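Notebook, bench 3.
Goal today: get a predicted structure for Phenylacetate-coenzyme A ligase PaaK-like adenylate-forming protein from Prosthecobacter vanneervenii so we can plan the truncation constructs. The sequence was checked against the plasmid map this morning, with no discrepancies at the termini. Length recorded as 501 residues. Pasting the sequence as submitted so the record is complete.
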Amino acid sequence: MATNATTSAPFASFFQLIQRTLWALRQFAPSRQAPEAIQRTQQERLRALLAQARAGSAFYREKFRHLPEDCTDLQAFPITTKAEMMAHFDAVVTDPAVTRAGVEGFMSDAANAGRLFLGKYAVAHTSGSQGQPALIVQNQQVLDLLYAFQLTRGQAAGAGSAVGRLVQTVRRLLRPTRVAVLSSAQGFFPSACVWQHLPRYLHWCMRFLFVPANDPRLLDKLNEFSPSVLTAMPSTLELLALNDEELHLPRLERLITCSEPLTAKTRERLRHAFGVPVLDNYACGECLFLSNGCPTAPGAHLNSDWAILEVVDAHNQPVPPGQPGHKVLLTNLANTVQPFIRYELGDGVTMATEPCGCGSRLPRLQTIRGRTEDVFWLHIAQGYRALLEYPFQHAFDPLREVREWQAVQVERNHLIIRLESIPGTVVDVEAARRRLEERLRTTGWPLAELHLTLEAVPNLTPDEPTTKFRHMVSHTGPPADLDTEHMDLQAESTGSPCAGE
Ligand SMILES: [Zn+2]
């Protein structure tokens, strides 16, 4: 059944409500389908997306002008970069009511966080790890899929017989899935805003708790809510595990981690502390439902019925499963308002070659190497730990006078953070420091072990050789004695945003 943009509107009938709920519950089935069947579905949806992009987007109409109207061979289509997408935002989107100025104006009012833009779109901005944040407009279909996959995929269900599935469906209706998302971000970061739009038709089989990771009543709220699924960054979960005596989560069935590298050791520690499987999700703001973590193996299963991920080398040539790619090209088959077609992302991904033991027949992303240049390896009591750009981003993005920031790792634990102010304003360096320290503390960094130098600078310049601006510059690189386990985890890390970003 096709989804449409009217699902959040009042339901015409009870029948429609049931129909939508059953649609969501049925999203389990494609994960057990033969690859050829998924491929056919994918191609049908691709054809529809290309037609909609051509009809409604001046940008894509022009970009695809040289290709025959009926061409659906994705590899023949040109690639789109984030810079292009942002430069031509108003021409990219297919709804003329959506404009860059309108979206930015909406997001400039913090009171709009948790509301839908124009009453129907979840809007967000991604991190600016490649110099510029991307604006993302998500339609209802994207939200529907995000929740439906959360409900049905990423669990080692039995053999998947028709009777088994029916039993599971009835069980879900009788005992709603209770998802708690702990976010270290608030405002218009993709996951921080999308998790506040649980579709009405899922209210009877899903309960949601969205809570800031630094909420002083976090433990009480979790105990009260009693989640069956707990989603957070690994460092947030590690902090929670330290409070295991005060935490009572008898319903807990699985943990979902995202945003930060999940080390083999952390995964094991969390599994032991909470006594449930730990699933490592890989997603990005441009496609929040991209994958669901595998319950039995590292990595995540790509939701390839609704997204296409091409693993390619530096020259955009396909890289076969088993070999690491240089980057990926994303096609989001559900977002028709802001189409992402062969959209370039800097993540190095390796697809698994073997079928997965968990029973899912969706392709598995075996290792996900984020943008390694955007990671600082710091040495703290427990060993090395990766610092990503999120704490900086969350600390500085809300500061209006900060035009740009850059963190430089000059020694293992010594970071110099440079802040460029918007012309005519002065950055309050001490206020910026307090915000950064607060963000680092929230994500479990021992401040006493870090040496942070903050300074205001007149302007920040791009990298000489690449001409790309970088937020994170390491002069030290990964340590030579980064142990084998940490090397693994670096390879298994996700560099993309989710609940934490
Ligand atoms: Zn699996």
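The CA atoms of residues 418 and 455 lie 5 Å apart. The chain has two domains: 14-369, 376-492.
Flagging this for group meeting.
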